[in-house]
């Protein structure tokens, strides 16, 4: 118990400097933006050509002439208060917009997480149990084939099959749960295949170890040996991978969101990029970075709970 | 065992074919990839156009061949750059140890703290589309993962007796890194390099698809898929052909990585995690 607590505290403390570092990185991204933000903002209205003086006034208003550290400080002061700034294009608060669109992305990611985890667990166990059988062989060929299909190609295949040919699902939008089925499948099929392969190989690795032999000698049932001993130890790499994928989905859903026109934070980021809205991009990077780091932290703690060796070695 | 080897060689052959198609694109492509022929748009296969044409009447096969040039070569080059940066930093970090190592690892963790797709898109979006931005975005977003693995490998090798022996004989750090450490970590790194090339091809294609990477009318698989969005229901190959190329390329990369892993697994199970 004490060890778990110590490990948790250590992990939490280690997370703080990383989060601070991410604020630096997210802010720094804004600095590499091409073009002058003030000019971009002033020319947001295509019918109006701003004067030099107007642009200069805007530069001062945005504080673009201040030293970088002062700008960072001002930005950070906002971040701490939960203010990621206002979009350069429509003046809406970035955090508010991200939070408004988050439910769609979150729903997509959570659904995908569930599919990946369940398919991964079931498939990995099945292939490991029937090792070297015909099922295993066929499964492995299919897996490597499926995981080679890029997500956005899979998306178009699904649209063609499920919407154009079979007419059972809508092609775009986020009105009903049904419209999330295809985006979810498009992002999760490849990752699920990776998890199945990972779990199969780590399970087979564990099953050849001596403690399994001991368990067999004790006369435990096969299901008990696999579920209680083998699986528990074999799960760690898969848990890390799934958590990584989930965190990655939160910040990597823009392709899927754009194919299926899901109004989520990925679509928001893409729109921001098209408008060269660097404040929104900074906010987006910070937001997804924090979400990603915290997801990975949770996964680390989960792995330590599954496998006590991790928390002892620290 | 025999069957596995056949699969490995087949995968290598497919990869070689893509490379060859890319290298010799101007020689083997039957048409100019950007030659527009509106009268002949979305035409089916014919003796002139083996795979038919796209919505502007451009020859699909020629665009695929030129596409493998851009996709595959950018991926190889970007992975090479990432490898250089990541390996150098990882070697330094692992070899020095102590507080420099801690510091570098903190930076590595920070760079890994941003989901890679978000990172690539943000850098690309802010720098503006184009080849140079694409390379920068890929290197900036993926050097950290590379360097962490290199560093962990170095830490393992560093403590071995022959390194100690070399040091006792008065060998310098650069000599030890070059002669003893690098050759010993290179084989496990091959798996990583292979998988990275595969994922970089996907990144390049996805970014071009989003309009952030290469720009139309460049012949690139991602751009071809983006072009095909509106037309694939009328003539499926405009979408199927580039998608199949991407899939085939990734498939061969995965199979090669599997083969390398099998080789390494003779020593221990550590390669599984790469």
Quick rundown:
The complex is a heterodimer of chains A (314) and B (274). Chain A is built from 14 helices and no strands.
Radius of gyration based on Cα positions of chain B: 22 Å
Q: What best-fitting shape of chain B do the alpha-carbon axes yield?
A: elongated
* Count of the separate structural domains of chain B: 1
Shape of chain A: flat
CATH topology of the domain at 102-274 in chain A: MetI-like fold
Number of helices of chain A: 14
Quaternary form: heterodimer
Low-confidence stretches of chain A: none
What value does the average pLDDT of chain A take?
85
Structure report:
The complex is a heterodimer of chains A (314) and B (274). Chain A is an all-alpha fold and 314 residues long. Chain A has a domain at 102-274: Orthogonal Bundle (MetI-like fold), CATH 1.10.3720. Chain A has 14 helices and no strands. The radius of gyration of chain B is 22 Å and the shape is elongated. The interface between A and B is large, with 53 and 44 residues.
Chain-wise SSE layout:
The complex is a heterodimer of chains A (314) and B (274).
Chain A: H1 2-31, H2 37-42, H3 52-62, H4 68-80, H5 94-129, H6 134-146, H7 151-165, H8 178-207, H9 210-217, H10 222-252, H11 254-259, H12 265-274, H13 278-306, H14 308-313
Helix pairs in contact in A: 1-13, 5-8, 5-10, 6-8, 7-8, 8-10, 9-10, 10-13, 12-13
Chain B: H1 2-23, H2 25-28, H3 60-96, H4 98-112, H5 116-127, H6 131-158, H7 161-168, H8 173-210, H9 221-228, H10 237-264
Helix pairs in contact in B: 1-3, 1-10, 3-4, 3-6, 3-8, 3-10, 4-6, 5-6, 6-8, 7-8, 8-9, 8-10, 9-10
What distinguishing features does this structure have?
heterodimer; A: 314 residues; mainly alpha; MetI-like fold; 78% helix; B: 274 residues; 10 helices; 73% helix; elongated; disordered C terminus
């Amino acid at each position: 118990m004490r060890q778990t607590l110590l490990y948790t505290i250590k992990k939490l403390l280690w997370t703080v400097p990383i989060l601070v570092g991410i604020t630096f990185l997210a802010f720094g991204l804004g600095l590499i933006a091409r073009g002058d933000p003030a000019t971009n903002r002033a020319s947001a209205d295509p019918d109006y050509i701003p004067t030099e003086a107007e642009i200069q006034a805007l530069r001062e208003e945005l504080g673009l002439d201040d030293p970088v550290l002062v700008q960072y400080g001002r930005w950070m002061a906002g971040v701490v208060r939960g203010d990621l700034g206002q979009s350069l294009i429509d003046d809406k608060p970035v955090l508010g917009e991200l939070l408004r669109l988050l439910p769609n992305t979150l729903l997509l990611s959570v659904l995908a997480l569930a599919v990946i985890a369940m398919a991964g667990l079931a498939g990995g166990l099945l292939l490991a149990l029937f090792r070297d059988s015909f099922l295993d062989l066929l499964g492995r060929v299919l897996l490597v084939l499926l995981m080679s299909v890029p997500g956005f190609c899979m998306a178009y295949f699904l649209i063609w099959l499920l919407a154009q040919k079979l007419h059972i699902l809508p092609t775009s939008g986020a009105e009903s749960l049904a419209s999330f089925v295809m985006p979810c499948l498009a992002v999760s099929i490849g990752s699920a295949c990776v998890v199945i392969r990972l779990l199969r190989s780590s399970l087979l690795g564990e099953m050849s170890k001596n403690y399994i032999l001991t368990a067999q000698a004790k006369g435990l049932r096969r299901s008990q040996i696999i579920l209680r001993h083998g699986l528990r130890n074999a799960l760690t790499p898969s848990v890390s991978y799934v958590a990584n994928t989930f965190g990655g989905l939160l910040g990597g859903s823009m392709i899927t969101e754009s194919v299926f026109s899901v109004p989520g934070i990925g679509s928001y980021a893409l729109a921001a990029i098209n408008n060269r809205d660097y404040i929104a991009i900074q906010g987006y990077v910070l937001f997804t970075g924090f979400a990603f780091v915290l997801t990975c932290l949770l996964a680390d703690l989960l792995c330590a709970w599954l496998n006590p060796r991790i928390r002892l070695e620290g | 065992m025999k069957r596995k080897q056949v699969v490995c060689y087949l995968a290598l052959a497919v990869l070689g074919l893509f490379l060859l198609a890319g290298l010799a694109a101007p020689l083997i492509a039957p048409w100019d990839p950007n030659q527009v022929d509106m009268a002949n748009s979305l035409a089916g296969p014919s003796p002139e156009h083996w795979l038919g044409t796209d919505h502007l009447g451009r020859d699909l096969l020629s665009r695929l061949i030129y596409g493998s040039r851009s996709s595959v070569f950018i991926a190889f080059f970007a992975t090479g750059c990432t490898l250089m940066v990541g390996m150098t930093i990882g070697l330094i970090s692992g070899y020095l140890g102590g507080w420099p190592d801690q510091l570098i690892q903190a930076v590595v963790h920070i760079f890994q703290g941003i989901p890679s797709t978000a990172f690539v898109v943000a850098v690309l979006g802010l720098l503006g589309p184009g080849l140079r931005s694409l390379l920068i975005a890929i290197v900036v977003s993926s050097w950290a993962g590379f360097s962490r693995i290199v560093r962990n490998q170095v830490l393992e090798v560093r403590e071995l007796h022959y390194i100690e022996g070399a040091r006792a004989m008065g060998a310098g750090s650069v000599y030890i890194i070059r002669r003893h450490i690098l050759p010993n970590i290179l084989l496990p790194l091959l798996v990583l390099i292979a998988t990275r090339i595969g994922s970089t091809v996907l990144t390049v294609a996805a970014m071009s698809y989003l309009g952030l990477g290469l720009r139309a009318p460049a012949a690139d698989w991602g751009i071809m898929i983006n072009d095909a969005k509106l037309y694939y229901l009328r003539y499926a190959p405009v979408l199927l052909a580039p998608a199949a190329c991407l899939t085939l390329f990734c498939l061969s990369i995965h199979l090669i990585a599997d083969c390398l892993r099998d080789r390494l697994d003779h020593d221990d199970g550590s390669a599984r995690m790469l």
